[in-house]
Amino acid sequence: MMTEQGDSYFNPANNTRLVFTELPKDNGGVRLVMDWFAGPGETLPNTRHYHAGPAYFASERFDLLAGSAVYWIGDTELRANAPHSFDIPCNTVHVHPRNVGSSEMHVRQTVTTPQPDLHNLQRAQHFFETLVALGQQGKTDRECNFTNRLQSALTVKETLLDPTWLADQPQALQRASLGLAATLALTLGYKARHQPAKEQAAAQTP
Q1: CA neighbours closer than 13 Å in the CB half-sphere of residue 46
Q2: Contact 73/94 with Cβ under 8 angstroms?
Q3: How far, in Å, CA of 149 to CA of 135, rounded?
Q4: Is residue 111 within 8 Å of residue 59, measured between CB atoms?
Q5: What are phi and psi of 186, to 5 degrees?
Q6: pLDDT tens profile 145-176
Q7: Half-sphere exposure for 94 (CA within 13 Å, toward CB)
Q8: Contacts of 39 (CB under 8 A, 6+ apart)
Q9: Is the pTM of this model over 0.85?
Q10: Which of 153, 149, 134 is nearest to 197 (CA)?
Q11: Poorest-confidence range of 12-16, 19-23, 199-203?
Q12: How many CB atoms lie within 10 A of CB 52?
């Protein structure tokens, strides 16, 4: 069953909840908006990466709505308490927020593109869906990494690679190495995308 606006998914691998607040299919491919709820010490996906694009454009915005967070922009570690917002310009290496407080952290992540781009925004959506789905199956770790390297290569290649790139590795090397591993994964029967199980709505009291 495909994700709809407002769907909520819980990832037991790192005690986080992901709510898809706004979907690109519903806004003409303009943005993807997600709300993250993370317990103390937990993190959003935190691999160092960047999004290629025009230097003047901010590809991501994070709104810290509750709690305390640490995040990285370039080589600078930044800490903040809610309420706090920050933008990530294209081509800027960054690491998503981690909860460094004693209560739940609530972060709203908004992903945008310079022009409407339904295809790539939906690819990003599929990455986050797959991350939670495999977390529900015990196939990711607490740091939001896939525990199987072939699965990681296939999912990253098919859902993120270009405009999203890992930091500290040449793009050509990433394209070649992930491409080879993804081809092997497909040969062995892996799937790039997985759909997580939705949280059930709380029962209404009569």
Answers
A1: 18
A2: yes
A3: 15
A4: yes
A5: -65, -40
A6: 999 999 999 999 999 999 999 999 999 999 99
A7: 24
A8: 15, 16, 99, 104, 105
A9: yes
A10: 134
A11: 199-203
A12: 12
